[in-house]
Design a protein that fits this description.
The protein has about 170 residues and is mainly alpha-helical. The protein has helices spanning about 15-25, 45-60, 95-125, 130-165, and strands at about 5-10, 25-30, 65-70, 75, 80. Helix content is about 55%, strand content about 10%. The protein has 4 helices and 5 strands, in the order βαβαβββαα. The protein has 2 domains: about 5-70, no CATH class; about 75-165. It has a 3-stranded parallel beta sheet. Strands 4-5 form a two-stranded antiparallel sheet. The longest helix has about 35 residues, at about 130-165. The chain is elongated. A hairpin with a 5-residue loop joins strand 4 and strand 5.
Length: about 170
């Protein structure tokens, strides 16, 4: 049997390590934690910059080829948050459950806000002339679509997160 080339993966996430083992079967995947490599604070402004930083730290510490990975949730309804800060979205030392709950709460706030706008528009309809009613109805349709999209987005995120948790 041929000896596999070693590759340090700059993550402590067991799920990601498993994924890289499946994606790169020609390599012996080594977790940075098994080499006592301590990750540095992520200073990049993009996922790519953070990935490069992680790979460099792991390579410099081990002398072995290294692969860095950085990812996060980008939720358009939240202006692309949590983004780079997905792992600490709820607070600095948040766990996955706290981050999910915070994300759910933030999306629910948007929906509550949109519901308030709808109530205001419905009030305007009852106190408007016929010329404004059509415009207000169009605004209501747009807001209803946004609410539905936000709910669908939240459901997709919850499904994806539960799949990640069930396949560590």
């Amino acid at each position: 049997m041929a000896h596999k080339q070693q590759l340090v993966v700059a993550t402590n996430n067991k799920g990601k390590l498993k994924e890289f083992s499946l994606l790169l079967p020609a390599f012996e995947i080594i977790a940075q934690s098994s080499l006592n490599i301590v990750p540095e604070e992520e200073l990049g402004k993009t996922f790519f910059e953070n990935s490069i930083q992680k790979a460099r730290v792991a390579n410099n510490a081990s002398g072995i080829a290294a692969l860095g990975d950085d990812s996060g949730l980008i939720v358009p309804a939240l202006n692309n948050l949590p983004g780079l800060h997905s792992a600490r979205y709820a607070h600095k030392n948040a766990n996955d459950e706290e981050n999910r709950e915070h994300l759910k709460n933030e999306l629910e706030k948007i929906n509550e806000y949109n519901q308030e706008i709808l109530k205001d528009l419905e009030y305007q309809i009852t106190n408007s002339d016929d010329a404004n009613i059509s415009q207000i109805n169009n605004e209501i349709d747009v807001i209803n679509r946004v609410i539905i999209e936000n709910k669908l987005e939240l459901e997709e995120i919850i499904i994806k997160l539960s799949q990640i948790e069930s396949n560590p």
